[in-house]
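Posted in: Structural Biology > Protein-Ligand Complexes

Title: Requesting predicted complex, guanosine-5'-triphosphate in pocket

I'd be grateful if someone could produce the 3D structure tokens for the following input. Sequence and ligand are given below.
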Amino acid sequence: MGVKDILKRVFTKEKKIVITGLDSAGKTTMVSFLQNGTFMEHAPTMGKELSQIEVQGIRINVMDMGGQKDFRDLWVGETSTAECVIFMVDAYARERFNEAKDELWKLSSIFKKKPLIILANKYDLQPVASISEIIEALNLKDLPSFEVIPISCKTGYGIVKAFMKMYYKLTGKQLTQKTNLRAITVFDQGGIPLTSSSNEDILQGGLFTAIHSFVKESFNKELDQLKMGGHLILFKRSKHLMGSIIVHDNDNIDVKEAESGLNDLLTHLEHMCPELEKEQLDSDKIEYLVEQYASNLL
Ligand SMILES: Nc1nc2c(ncn2[C@@H]2O[C@H](COP(=O)(O)OP(=O)(O)OP(=O)(O)O)[C@@H](O)[C@H]2O)c(=O)[nH]1
Ligand SMILES: [Mg+2]
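-- Reply #1 --
Done. Output follows.
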């Protein structure tokens, strides 16, 4: 790397992250989830593919490496110029842990010099390997440093947490979520709640009844905020669903961020539940999807 390249990297605030891991681990699915806010199916990556994500004035070059055998030779060259390296493991594919360990350890000289994040993907499937099982199977304790984060690139579980961790490793800056979310509920068009878990503590004292009747009455109206007892309740409609989130009503809250989070959740649900178009609704599926995605909003 020449002087010009070094100066360019320092002053343009560009950072590079490289995502490695066996074929079918879910690398491309993650990049696409980060860009689109939902799950999409992709063809295997031939060679490598560069994407750019800009966050708070910093451009992150994300190099998504093909994981098939023929392309693994490319990993060392790319990782040597990265500020952070991801190794993604399919936590459901125990039969491939040995192969994953061998490939990971071929990069061990790189990990002595830069941060490594292991993403344990496919945490929507059962039975998935636990984090300690993965640490053991990949021999991670022998590495100078590492972090393992469970995620699902299908449901979005843990995706924001993983991204915030990458961002921190790249920039030394902590991205914070300012929504201060207390509860999420998703309703059908008739105002019937489809989710309930983990909301009990906040939804006492008639608050939920109030929201419920509000949703029923207002499904076709434009009103999208309610203030009640120190809480701000935001509503959003999508084609077949309505979502409400409750946040603490104080000066620090970023209402726009909260609204856009709720919007993303509804878009994701509509996308993952094509049966809604046929007027079919699986409330267990919606509850599960909301639970998984909620980690991105809390
Ligand atoms: N159930 C489930 N399937 C997933 C998840 N992430 C990815 N997949 C599926 O796994 C398969 C492989 O995903 P890709 O993102 O193409 O995998 P990749 O690591 O980019 O593979 P290569 O490009 O060949 O290295 C696809 O069928 C995805 O739909 C997940 O979190 N859960
Ligand atoms: Mg790929």
